[in-house]
Amino acid sequence: LRTHSLLSLFLQAKMSRPVQARRLEGIDKNIWVEFVKLAATYSTVNLGQGFPDFPPPDFLKEAFVKALSGENHMLHQYTRAFGHPPLVKILAQFFGKLLARDLDPMTNVMVTVGAYQALFCCFQAFVDEGDEVIIIEPFFDCYELMVKMAGGTPVFVPLRPKAPKDGKLMSSADWQLDPAELASKFSKRTKAIVLNSPNNPLGKVFSRGELELIADLCVKHDVLCISDEVYEWLVYDGKEHIRIASLQGMWDRTVIIGSAGKTFSATGWKVGWTVGPNRLLQHLRTVHQNSVYHCATVAQEAVAQGFQREFERYGKPDSYFVQLSKELQQKRDWLVQSLDAVGMKPIVPEGTYFLVADISEFKSDVPDVPNTDEPYDTRFAKWMVKNKGLAAIPLSAFYCGAHKNNYNHFIRFCFAKEEATLKAANDILQKWKLEKISP
Ligand code: PMP
Question: What are the Aminotransferase class I/classII large domain coordinates in residue numbering (predicted)?
Fold first, then answer.
């Protein structure tokens, strides 16, 4: 009898009802989990995920060490929930200068756990069931999933490539919005548009004309702009990063999102921020308050010191922001040359850590399989890491399900890497090319 009652107790205790909340339906698979694992298992050279393999600048590391082991032991305790006061103060000063506007550190700036949490706060704070959010393809994949998790409907509009002239290499600037197509996506249901300039994965830096087109539509349809500017300092060839919030009518409806990870080459610190009008930020504070509430104090203190240093050196040759973009431009050029030499045609990026390359000429190595759901570039990238030890990310990962197969012959490389890493990638590509010529 005792065994029997124990067994029935056990069966009762085991849950049979579905445990997953409806909002997670369809968003439980994520390509990063798979590709990060593949890179860890097989890669000898990892140009996949977007992080530098070189250290952050000494002044930043020193600021962290000082914050950690200095006399102010209160830096080990909670600080202000919406941002450590020294950090929000310097961010308000810095962005106030960039935007030519007086910013209140307490109401116009909020610190987050990386730009990722800033994005999450935006979608949770602004998107209701039934709201539409316009996303420009290719896009950082979490936008789609975060919109869905908030109950909204993502509406996609692609950047369309135009063939470059005179046999030149394609540039990320050749990928453009069709103005009529973009306008057709705005409706009464549109709550927000997500802008990511400089863009991950293409490296496109939106021009003033393109930003004005988006801004005019936002104003006309009374739409918010979530402006992900994490690569704001990483622009090349003298290009200018223009902040959409600085355009007519846009400050009031834009949240700017930034990342100390990308700004100071310290992605593991996970310090990010939002800048915008209080009427928008007050709602981000509500989400932040009821989810994460607070970010690591020591990291915020060090980032505040980093910004203070950069504020004093703004635009000068010894500014880290100036130096980093120069160094990355050189790394971009190396990778462009390596890929071009083997016929994996690069699309020259105007900004970011990333470069997208055309794999069409390598299709004989990884033949197409008809009638499979997996886009060609995904199988190619998996094959490449397993057989060549080189990790990259398929471009189709940055498109919605319906559009993945329209752009399935490109892969994305991250070039924010040490010279030795880029050289090792070049060696793999050269050897591969030779094998193709004389198998
Ligand atoms: N936005 C974009 C476009 C990114 O590429 C990334 C990081 N890959 C993030 C946001 C997230 O930044 P963080 O690491 O600061 O959370």
Answer: 45-425
| CA geometry: angle 340, 321, 332, nearest 5 deg | 5
Which tokens in the block code for residue 215? 């801004």
Cis peptide bond upstream of 349, omega within 30: no
DSSP class of residue 189 equals T
Query: How confident is the model over 396-415, as pLDDT tens digits?
Result: 999 999 999 999 999 999 99
Domain of residue 150, CATH code: 3.40.640.10
Last residue of a domain, one of 283, 313, 343: 313
Q: Write out the two tokens for 212.
A: 């004005």
pLDDT at 369: 83
What's residue 211's pLDDT? 98
Q: What is the pLDDT of residue 373?
A: 84
Shared domain check, 361 and 225: no
Residue 203 beta carbon below 6 angstroms from any ligand 1 atom: no
Nearest CA to ligand 1 atom 5: 200
> 279 and 327 share a domain?
no
| Predicted local confidence at residue 307, as pLDDT | 98
Counting as low any pLDDT under 50, the low residues of the chain are: none
Distance (Å, whole) CA 88 – CA 81: 11
Residue 282, Cβ neighbours under 10 Å: how many?
A: 12
In a domain, residue 212? The reply is yes
Decide: 229 in ligand 1 pocket, CB within 6 A: no
What pLDDT does 370 receive? 79
